[in-house]
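Kindly review this record before class:
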Amino acid sequence: MKHTFFRAFKFAFQDFWRNIWLSLVTVTVLVLALLSVNVLISLNAISNSIINSVEKKVDISVFFKENVTEAQVDNFQEKIKSMSEVEESVYISKEKALADFREKHRGDKSIMEALRQVEENPLLDALVIRAKSTDDYSRILSTLSMGKNQELIKYQNYTDHKKIIEKVSVLRDKVKTFSISLTAIFSLIAVLIVFNSIRVMIYTHREEIAVMRLVGASNSFIRAPYILESVIYVIFAFIIAMIFLYVIIGATGPYLNDFLQTYDFSLLNYYAENFFVIFGAQFLAVVVLNIVSSGIAIGRYLKI
């Protein structure tokens, strides 16, 4: 069995180099298909990172009136926390807010001088509210607008990034549609080329195949070299595609990092962390696709 496999592999490898131009065309199309898939994965990862980062910055800041007691603030916060739409609510006292403000602007002499001239703390107690989803903010805002709650609130600030999220989502969907279409086109071309490549190989070796069948060679023995050759296409294409991908990421990395630094995302780190999932799935998918297409070609044109 082992000897038979190595013979089939040797035959497949020899045939790959013997028809090098046909092999190069097949590998090139497979490379383009793999690169288009990874473009889709990269753009999807970048857009998801931007959306997640923007969503984390969305919040509602509620500032309480000066005469509101600590007990009233506690009751208000408990009421907000009990809402199913609320992810978290953080109370910030005016003392802590002032200390944070001083720390942030300690190098600004004009601001520090203005604070010294103000005898009282100009800031207010506040509650920062974050929802589980951006769609939940409308419900939270409705609750805050109720009469009893408005008696405690001096003013509120809603940092609405919904429009930004919607724009990124629309752009992501358009890019995704384009990438999927491109991937489908290259995949179809790759399947057709592999199909025709195997067909050409079979035609080239038709006399050898006839002799093998006359001497009693099994169907699996005749099929094996051609299926292995389709796997060789995938291996070469996969290696080349990975090299191209990492070269492209390395070349565009500095520009992407400058753009994405505020979103704490690195495309190179993303591929490193998900290496086996991303490339393992792609490799298996392309191998199966090629084996199926080559198997159909063998079955159809050899009538085995």
